[in-house]
Design brief:
Layout (H helix, E strand, L loop, with lengths): L2 H13 L8 H5 L1 E5 L3 E10 L4 H14 L2 E7 L4 E6 L8 E10 L2 E10 L7 H12 L5 H12 L7 E5 H14 L1 H8 L3 E14 L2 E6 L20 E6 L4 H4 L7 E12 L4 E10 L1
Helix pairs in contact: 1-4, 3-5, 6-7
Protein name: DUF5666 domain-containing protein
Organism: Pseudoxanthomonas mexicana
Keywords: Signal
Length: 278
């Protein structure tokens, strides 16, 4: 479990009245799996006078307020995937939201999915999840909250990382599910530190690639991390040409940009709209 999630759970335990813990959410709470295979924690509530669309809007706002990112959502099927961002020491924790219509009501189900090896206590997860589900409202209040939540955007803060560390994180993520890499990171802002490998034209942009050493080149290696190298490149717009012309192979740089996509066949990821920072 990530530090952020632990902190959020601790806050929930201190700010929610005990009476809020009793009821439908607690009765429907379930746990499956184990620390060896990964654990799913799930619960659901049914909220009267609420449509699937409005429930989706509310959950978007609620989860982003919890410092989570909405990875994907589909109002037609009532599904949403959100995640706590991974850090240098912790993996992302996905939460699946499934919403269905029940007459004039909406049933909102939340499932927190931990990977094998991640520890999470049921007695801490249950009140945390129920605190979030208790925020879903029906009626006029719910429609107003849905309109506001639907406009909420993922946090646009910049994550600063060493480019080699970032490359290895992406390699491990791609091993589990390559399609999820772009879905998870697209649009996020990163500032990556490393050295220039090569510079070339790429359509109307300029492609500046980082020097990413191969595994086993004397660098620190995470046990079990034997995935092939993932290249990292930054795309600079034509208005950055003056800076691009000064880059030389081996230069130590920090480039800030927005995650564009990952290509598992080429084993490369691209940031777009890049600029050099000092």
């Amino acid at each position: 479990m990530t530090y952020k999630l632990l902190a959020a759970i601790a806050l929930a335990l201190t700010t929610v009245a005990p009476a809020a813990f009793a009821g439908e959410c607690e009765d429907n709470f379930s746990k499956s799996g184990s620390i060896f295979s990964g654990t799913d924690f799930s619960s659901r509530v049914t909220v009267p006078d609420l449509s699937v669309k409005d429930a989706m809007g509310q959950m978007r706002g609620i989860m982003i307020a919890e410092k989570m990112d909405v990875i994907t959502e589909d109002a037609e099927t009532g599904t949403m995937l959100v995640e706590q961002r991974s850090t240098n020491t912790t993996r992302a924790i996905p939460t699946l939201i499934a919403i269905s219509a029940e007459g004039g009501a909406a049933t909102v189900q939340m499932t927190v999915k931990t990977e094998k090896g991640q520890m999470a206590k049921q007695d801490a997860i249950r009140p945390y999840m129920c605190q979030l589900l208790a925020k879903v409202k029906g009626g006029k209040e719910g429609r107003a909250a849905a309109a506001q939540g639907a406009k909420t955007q993922n946090n646009a803060d910049v994550t600063v990382k060493d480019v080699y560390v970032f490359s290895r994180e992406i390699a491990r993520e791609a091993k589990g599910n390559a399609v999820a890499v772009t879905a998870r990171h697209k649009g996020r802002h990163y500032a990556l530190r490393g050295r220039v490998d090569y510079v070339q034209e790429d359509g109307q942009d300029y492609n500046v690639s980082f020097d990413i050493p191969e595994q086993g080149s004397g660098l620190l290696q995470v046990p079990g991390d034997n995935e092939p190298r993932v290249g990292v490149a930054c795309l600079f717009k034509p208005n950055q040409l003056a800076n691009v012309l000064t880059f030389r192979k081996g230069d130590k740089v920090t480039f800030k940009g927005q995650f564009l996509r990952y290509d598992d066949f080429k084993r490369v990821l691209w940031l777009q709209n890049c600029v050099q920072t000092r």
